[in-house]
Amino acid sequence: MKLYHSPASPFVRKVMVLLNEAKATDRVTLVPAMGTPLDPGSMPVDRNPLGKIPALERPDGPTLYDSRVITRYLDDLLHAGLYPAAPHLWDTLVIEATGDGIAEAAVLMRYEMHVRPEATRSPDWAGAQWQKIARALAALEERWMSHLSGPVDMGQVAVGAALGYLDFRHSERNWRNNRPALANWFATYADRPAMQATAPT
Ligand code: BEZ
User: Fold this and answer.
1) Cα–Cα nearest to 101, from 140, 148, 54
2) Fold entry, domain 88-196
3) Of 9, 45, 83, 163, which is most buried, counting CB atoms within 10 Å of its CB?
4) 2-78, what's its fold?
């Protein structure tokens, strides 16, 4: 299988963490893909009409996207066990959606302030994205710490990838301020071999 990949993408990182946790990185060939909303560059627009990564090309079916579809597929194929049975599944999925939402807002902020022509950038718009992130971090801190501290699942993987991206691209925002439980959890989670092997570059 071919995985369209960038080492900076938090969504690609989710897939790579799953593959590392399942000890199955040899099941995919990485295809470098780079581009922006202004220029799709080498993004796989013929495989994913949205021109986004990750995208997973399979020998026996249509290319899969987005990250949540790919992780569900790989979890099933590899018996990775990162999606529990219902009713715990609903918690895992909402935490995964929260991590993905943080990552999405953080990537949009990056595009706004570094890819858009300088004259058209909106710090207010980027600030509004940060407010989304702040609310999501507060929800994790207030509601989901006991789940995050349980058995590893895709909720944890998504939150780990999102927090890693905040450190990578938005460290000046100090997301750890007033979030001691989440900061403490991430200090331990980020030490997992699957996280160490996939740090963004
Ligand atoms: C980044 O460079 O921040 C980035 C690259 C690919 C996807 C998302 C973010």
Assistant:
1) 140
2) Glutathione S-transferase Yfyf (Class Pi); Chain A, domain 2 (1.20.1050)
3) 163
4) Glutaredoxin (3.40.30)
Q: What is the pLDDT of residues 164-173, one digit of tens each?
A: 999 999 999 9
* 200 CA to centre of ligand 1 in angstroms: 9
Structural domain spans, the chain: 2-78, 88-196
State percent of the chain over pLDDT 90: 100
Please choose from 5, 6, 34 the residue to mutate so as to test ligand 1's pocket, defined by most ligand atoms within 8 A of CB.
Answer: 6
pLDDT tens for 84-136 read 999 999 999 999 999 999 999 999 999 999 999 999 999 999 999 999 999 99
What is the arithmetic mean of pLDDT over 29-58? 95
Residue of the nearest CA to atom 2 in ligand 1? 8
From the list 158, 152, 145, the residue with the least C-alpha distance to 185 is 145
Torsion angle of the four alpha carbons 16, 18, 22, 27, in this order, in degrees rounded to the nearest 10: -40
Question: Which atom of ligand 1 has the smallest separation from the CA of 34?
Answer: 6
Beta carbon of 107 within 6 Å of any ligand 1 atom:
yes
